[in-house]
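Open question from group meeting: does this chain pack into something compact, or does most of it stay loose? Before anyone orders reagents, we agreed to write out a predicted structure and look at it together. Recording both the input and the output here so the notebook holds the full record.
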Amino acid sequence: MKYIFLVNTFSLKENTNDVVARILTVGNELGLDYHVEMNSSRISTEDILKKYKDSRNIIICLGGDGTINRTLNAIANTKNVLGYIPFGTGNDFYRSNKELLEDGINKIDLVRINDKYFINVACFGIDADIANTDELIHSSILPKSQRYNVSIINHFLKYKARHMKVICDGKEYESDYTTIAVCNARYYGGGYKIGTNASLTDGLLDVYLINDLPKLKMASLILGMKKAKHENDPSCKLIKTNKLTIESPSEFECNIDGDKLKDKKFDIELIPKGIEVYYDQHLIDEIKKVKLKKQ
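Structure tokens returned:
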């Protein structure tokens, strides 16, 4: 198979030319059959990947979770394999992969949400509002490690719980929720371990329902997710399922792996082993750490 390196020029925090030079250096040293593609204001990720839809390649995107999600949606239902080099803000899917996947090609569960797909986490409520605040999450001023925390502070003072209904396995859970997180993998928000025991291959989603909370309790619970303290909190309910619907009387936002959606109703269904993912820690290390020769 050919390696197609897809460089997201919008999310890279490093010089694009330097990153491409690293790919060329490592690709040649490892003797890979490879090609480099770059998106831009003139050609999108989706347009680039159309040319590969009828062949089988390892599509390695360089960027963050949003880049992975757009690449995933462009190659879903093709023979291509999804790979990545983490160069983004959160890199949460990469965190899960280090814990859950072996080097090489892995078949993992894929999740369909309305007419889109995701493989990491879909969140609703305050978590979606926090993740969708682009000016903070993608700020060039704030340190990467603090962007999600700053966005939490920005939202929790003014946030009001949203009325939502969750329908799954013949049951309805209707309430005012602070947040709902649908987890295929474990991390979101730049290292918050919401899906503590989630698996990418068990055919189940770990769904967390967090009730309306006083603001200080809400902030404490969200920050406690760094160490999975939410698992034993009575305000947090865990449901394991492979199919559910989340709806509300008016449009509300969702965030899937760094991308935002908006609708009144979200139908979510897990597709067992629905996508192949290529995980290669050696390749990741080489491209991220290679020292370029001075010209």
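Observations to bring back to the group:
Residues 135-139 have pLDDT under 50 and may be disordered.
The CA atoms of residues 130 and 151 lie 5 Å apart.
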